[in-house]
Amino acid sequence: QVQLVESGGGLVQPGGSLKLSCAASGIIVNRYAMAWYRQAPGKQRELVAIIPSIGMTIYADSAKGRFTISRDNADNTVSLQMNSLKPEDTAVYYCNARRTAAAAEYWGQGTQVTVSS
């Protein structure tokens, strides 16, 4: 059974930082394209960043220069370091694993990030 469990969300002031983590079980993260998505109230879910199994990471324009996605193969986790947070970053953040060749895709349950003073 595949599980993606996010942690690290919470309430932070504008300009602050948070680090989200996604612990994977049932898959090996370096064999999947791992990504972070977010969904704000009343909006569609959107891609924040993706780290493929091979190749360069990709960031949404809103995340460039502020967020960093990384993968720890030893711990089988994926993280999202978020700096200079803005109120518009407020959303539920979801971890995603996709392996196109296997037609496999998995989602975590999400973690709430609230940026407010």
Task: Report the C-alpha radius of gyration, rounded.
Answer: 13 Å
Structural class: mainly beta
Q: Total number of β-strand segments?
A: 11
Q: How far is the first residue's CA from the last residue's CA?
A: 40 Å
Topology as H/E string? Answer: EEEEEEEEEEE
- State the oligomer: single chain
Enumerate how many helices there are, as a single number: 0
Our estimate of the beta-strand percent is: over 45%
Helix amount, in percent? under 10%
What's the mean pLDDT score?
Answer: 96
Overall spatial form: globular
Q: Detail the poorly predicted runs.
A: none
Major sheet, described briefly?
A: 7 strands, mixed
Please specify the SSE layout and strand pairing.
Elements (H helix, E strand, L loop, with lengths): L2 E5 L2 E3 L5 E8 L7 E7 L6 E6 L6 E2 L7 E6 L4 E6 L8 E9 L4 E4 L3 E5 L2
Parallel strand pairs: 2-11
Antiparallel strand pairs: 1-3, 3-8, 4-5, 4-9, 5-6, 7-8, 9-10, 9-11
